[in-house]
Design brief:
Blueprint lengths: L1 H5 L10 H10 L2 H6 L2 H9 L9 H37 L5 H16 L3 H29 L5 H31 L6 H12 L8 H34 L6 H30 L10 H12 L8 H30 L1
Length: about 325
């Protein structure tokens, strides 16, 4: 491309024989003797400019990762009681949402905060990895494959980020849910008991169900957020003459994206909870087998157990995870300037 521009190519991308001959005349004799002329012309005529990431892009990658980890850990800490109620409801085989809320109220503050340590550590680390990989893949793709549409880039990036982030989170999730279900009094007892009876694989029980939930959840959520934000920016530019969104608008987009993703992935969340809270030493069944058994014994509605507390929990978490990290990284960036 650079050579074609230099030779003043026409709109079709071709040059005349005369210009091609002039190109050959300009080549030193030793170059002609050392290399094939046709190959040399091809290499010169098909050069494309590469976008090299500047320092600001690299800094934003680091800031995005740190900001998302802080936001995710903070939101998990604040909303953990609601997550505990959801886990108790999904792990039960007959309890209603009203009875579970009553049981949670009887447990007091200490009871509803069971599993808070692995929950916070898992959420912060996994979200940091998830967003870090997401931003890194987007940046790398923009450099190496600039012609790929944004929607495809976002889907690939969020899928890779979700896979890595989920792998980091699964052991923490297993410990958290066993504590929330009241199976152990503390993190140490839960860890040693699982390791003693099931080994390391016990910390990854329910991995298939977790990946089946997490990857679609974050792909749907992050793609939805990017698309909602794009539409909101276009609307703001048209109506207000500026691209910047208000803080509340950004948070609302994050909440909407999280709620949408949560609603579509609730059945996988139920299956994950049942697997992770199953008896230690019990044989792990495929998620398809568990789903069929669950529907046969408890009805199709069992796959949507805990949908309400999950939605109430995910909406604010989504607001902070999907949008809060942008606000945080902007603040951190401004402070360093």
């Amino acid at each position: 491309e650079s050579m074609l521009k230099y030779l003043d190519a026409d709109a079709s991308g071709y040059v005349s024989y005369g210009k091609y001959r002039n190109f050959l005349i300009l080549i030193p004799k030793e170059k002609i003797e050392a290399k094939d002329i046709g190959l040399m012309w091809f290499e010169s005529a098909t050069m494309v400019p590469m976008i090299v990431p500047d320092n600001s892009s690299k800094k934003m990658l680091v800031l995005s990762t740190l900001a998302s980890a802080v936001i995710s850990g903070t939101s998990t800490l604040a909303l953990h009681p609601l997550d505990t109620v959801k886990t108790m409801l999904q792990a039960s085989k007959g309890g209603s949402i009203v009875s579970v809320f009553k049981d949670a109220a009887k447990m007091g503050r200490t009871g509803v905060y069971r599993g808070i340590i692995p929950a916070t550590v898992g959420a912060a680390s996994s979200q940091g990895f998830r967003v870090g990989v997401f931003e890194a893949v987007k940046l790398g793709t923009r450099v190496l494959l600039p012609s790929i549409p944004d929607l495809q880039v976002q889907t690939i990036a969020s899928g890779m980020g979700s896979f890595i982030g989920t792998a980091v989170r699964i052991p923490c999730e297993v410990l958290k849910q066993r504590l929330q279900a009241g199976q152990y009094p503390g993190v140490w007892q839960a860890t040693t008991s699982v390791m003693k009876k099931d080994g390391v694989k016990g910390l990854f029980r329910g991995s298939a169900a977790t990946l089946s939930r997490e990857i679609p959840f974050y792909v749907i959520g992050m793609v939805a957020y990017e698309q909602f934000k794009k539409a909101a920016v276009a609307y703001s530019l048209e109506k207000r003459g500026r691209e910047d969104l208000e803080a509340w608008e950004t948070i609302a987009l994050g909440a909407l994206s999280g709620a949408l993703a949560a609603a579509l992935t609730t059945p996988f969340d139920v299956l994950k909870t049942r697997l992770m809270t199953s008896a230690i030493g019990a044989q792990t069944v495929p998620i398809t087998t568990l789903a069929k058994k669950l529907v046969a014994e408890e009805g199709p509605g069992a796959l949507f157990k805990g949908a309400l507390p999950r939605a109430l929990w995910i909406a604010p978490v989504g607001a902070m995870n999907f949008a809060g990290y942008e606000l945080a990284k902007n603040a951190m960036s401004s402070a360093q300037e």
